[in-house]
Specification:
10 helices; alpha/beta; 8 strands; 245 residues; single chain
Length: 245
């Protein structure tokens, strides 16, 4: 089964949770421990990526540790074309749709395409839009962030992603954001599109996770929380709220 089909099958049963682990923030061994903790909490898959500091070496070692310790799919969430590894199970082949840097929109994807084809890494196409406050990913990505009240613009981006034939659409408030994507925006985008909607950034409580799920998110991503919290029961409460369990 492909990673994409694995995700779609799970989404068909309800909202799923994905953990985001930055390979530059800890050793591969600790990343594996985090993935095991999240698997026990109910996480469905692990994203590996960060805005800066990702190398082929830390990406590969982190992916191996995650798969060994948790058995969950390890999916590369790339920040650029420099670090690629066959140790991941798949890669989000994403377009940062609201970047002012054309390399982020399409240039890096063109550069990486021949290598991804040669390496045989599964690609999952995704439209990626940065929402206010945007944080480091918005800065590094030179994004013209979608303001929190620009709901019609977020909907337009989602529709464009679907019309381009992308498999997924991601609304990202940024790692460490003090405010997650507004439920009103999630609700409007979900109503407009038929492809799965991913929401991440600033989701650190069961209440925030539940709000995103109830608004219509198909996938909820948490990242910063995993770096700052080693309370397995609290993490489980956030995942359960994300999945409506």
């Amino acid at each position: 089964m492909t990673v994409k089909q694995y995700l779609l099958d799970r989404i068909a049963k309800g909202t799923i949770h994905m953990a985001l682990i930055d390979p530059d923030k800890q050793s591969a061994e600790i990343a594996g421990d985090i993935a095991k903790r999240m698997k026990d909490a109910g996480t469905d898959a692990v994203l590996i990526g960060g805005s800066t500091g990702v190398t082929k070496e830390n990406l590969s070692s982190t992916a191996k540790a995650i798969k060994e310790r948790s058995g969950l799919p390890a999916i590369h969430f790339p920040g650029g074309p420099d670090a690629l590894s066959t140790d991941v199970d798949g890669i989000l082949y994403m377009c940062m749709m609201n970047s002012m840097d054309l390399k982020k929109v399409m240039g890096y994807q063109v550069m990486a395409a021949p290598y991804l084809k040669k390496l045989g890494i599964e690609t999952i196409s995704m439209g990626y839009v940065i929402v206010e406050p945007g944080m480091k990913v918005g800065e590094v990505g030179n994004a013209k962030v979608v303001k929190r009240d620009e709901i019609d613009l977020a909907v337009a981006y989602g529709l464009a992603a679907e019309m381009y034939g992308m498999s997924l659409f991601y609304l990202e408030a940024g790692s460490g954001a003090d405010r997650p994507v507004p439920p009103e925006m999630i609700r409007a985008v979900k109503k407009a599109i038929s492809i799965p909607l991913i929401v991440g950034g600033g989701i650190r409580t069961p209440e925030a996770a539940a709000a995103a799920r109830e608004a219509g998110a198909d996938v909820i991503v948490t990242g910063t929380l995993l770096e700052r919290c080693d309370d397995g029961e609290y993490l489980k409460s956030v995942v359960k709220a994300a999945k409506g369990l």
